[in-house]
Amino acid sequence: MSTKKDEVGNGSEMAPAKQGRALMPGVAAIVDEFRQAYGAERVDAAIAAGQRARREYQALLEANGKAAADRWLRGQRFPHGCFHAAEAGHEVGIRRP
To answer: Which of 14, 32, 43, 63 has the fewest CB atoms within 10 Å, counting from its CB?
Structure first.
């Protein structure tokens, strides 16, 4: 499996996308099918939206508590879609309430 050298690494670290595929092979297979059916650009936009929402939700959760974070998440419209998947204790994206 190929690796991607990061800015300060020695090239032995696996790129996040490759690492995710290795940790979640079932999800990776489904994502591949989605990309074929709906186009990579559309699927990748939904995955990116889910990851951004997950980071924002976590920041709101830490700063303002669960009620505020849940309220924010319920109000999001995600015009490009939103993605959530879990496998073997790993998650990508965000589960909507």
So the answer is: 63
Cα separations (Å) of 64 from 67, 86, 89?
8, 26, 26
pLDDT tens sequence across 25-37 = 999 999 999 999 9
**78: number of Cβ within 10 Å:** 15
- The DSSP string of 62-89 is HHH-HHHHHHHHHH---TT---EEEETT
Q: Convert the pLDDT of each residue in 51-93 to its tens digit.
A: 999 999 999 999 999 999 999 999 999 988 899 999 999 999 9
Q: Which amino acid is at 96?
A: R
